Structure formats: structure tokens, C-alpha cells
Amino acid sequence: DYFHIGGDDLYLLVENLRLYLESEEIQLASNGGQTLPNGSEDEQTPLFMGRRFAEGGNRARMFISGGSGYTMNKAALKTLVVDGFPTCFPHMHTFSEDVMVATCLRKMDIVPYDTKDEAGGERYMPFQPGHHLTYHPPKNPKDDWYSNYSVDVKWGIDHCAAKSVAFHYIKEDLMKRMHGILYHYC
User: Fold this and answer.
1) Radius of gyration over every alpha carbon of the chain, rounded to an integer in angstroms
2) 3-state DSSP call for residue 71?
3) What is the DSSP string of 109-120?
4) Per residue in 125-134, is it b (16+ CB within 10 Å) or e — as a string?
5) DSSP structural state of residue 160
6) Residue 108: which residues within 8 A CB-CB, separation 6 or more?
7) For residue range 147-164, what is the model confidence (pLDDT) as tens digits?
């Protein structure tokens, strides 16, 4: 079982998310990375998945960008709700829930999982498809927050995974166009 959360400007390709979560890679990871699950397991390794960012370029402060949403397996969600929420920033009000969730999970030794595909393409996109196609970082990556926060990414045409899971900042008209193109309605 998995939980995915994202905003109302998120375009989620459900079939790609399902394929990814059912993949051997994720099945192995959720079973500790040693063997594929066979149904007799009584424990699951917590998985916290999405687009990884390094806060301010600091890899010790990795978080999952909330824009394209994040996906947790049952073990990660249970750990966050039962062990994290009561003690980790219980009264904080902030717009950066993605950073706070990652901070709470990190305190329990759950770190963001690298969700790139076998070719190094990102599955969870913090911007619209066109932005990822045309964006190139400045000469000094620290001059732009996006290149500074990004972790081992490819730029241009190779940036997006062939089976991308989610895109952020998708307004209604673009959402309808993307849906029409992807599902052959136009």
C-alpha cells in the first residue's frame, strides 16, 4: 500500500506511478534490498519517494519536493504519523511542509529515495514539461536555486524519465491538453 500527496496543480500519471511502485526495484527496496517479497514478510522498509532536492545545496538536508508530490509506502507513512507528528514540529505552521516532513523522517533514519530511472531521468518533475526540456543551469549553479538544489540531474531532453510520474504547476488548460495528448483524445 502506498500514499501519494500533492497539490491541485499536479498532473499525476497514475499508470506510471503504479508501474514504478510494482517494479522489482521498489519491491526489493521495500523489502530491505536483499530479496523480493513473497508475502510472508511482517515488516517493510520505509520508502519516502519523489523529486529529491538538497536544501541550499546541502546533501545532508535532502527533502522531497512537495510540488510534484511525494509517495510513501505504508511503513514510512505509519512512522511519520505515529512516531513523527506527535514530537516533530507539532505546533509549527509553515508553507514548506515538504522540508518539515523530510526533517521529521530524517530524525528516524528515513531519507529520500532516489527515484531516477535506469537512464538517469527524473520521474517526479517540479515544473511543467516544457520547462524541463528547455532549462539549462547557469555557469555557476549556485546562482539559481533550482540548479543549486538539484541532485545529480541531467538537463534538457534527457531530464525527464520516459515513464515520468508527475509534473507540477499544471494549470487547467495545460492539464486538459496533456490529458488529451497522452490518452489520444485529440
Assistant:
1) 17
2) strand
3) T--EEE---TTS
4) bbbbbeebee
5) B
6) 46, 79, 83, 84
7) 999 999 999 999 999 999
CA angle 95, 99, 105 (to 5 degrees): 130
Angle among Cα 132, 48, 136 to the nearest 5 degrees reads: 15
Judge contact between 121 and 154, C-beta under 8 A: yes
Contact, 48 vs 102, CB < 8 A?
A: yes
86, amino acid identity: P
All three cell numbers of 117, joined, read: 530511472
Q: What is the pLDDT of residues 17-72, one digit of tens each?
A: 999 999 999 999 999 887 888 877 878 999 999 999 999 899 999 999 999 999 99
Give buried/exposed letters for 24-40 (b at 16+ CB in 10 A, else e): eebeebbbeeeeeeeee
Query: Which pTM does this prediction carry?
Result: 0.91
Nearest residue to 3 via CA among 44, 41, 61, 42: 44
Distance CA 38, CA 57 (A): 39
Q: Cell triple for residue 37?
A: 517479497
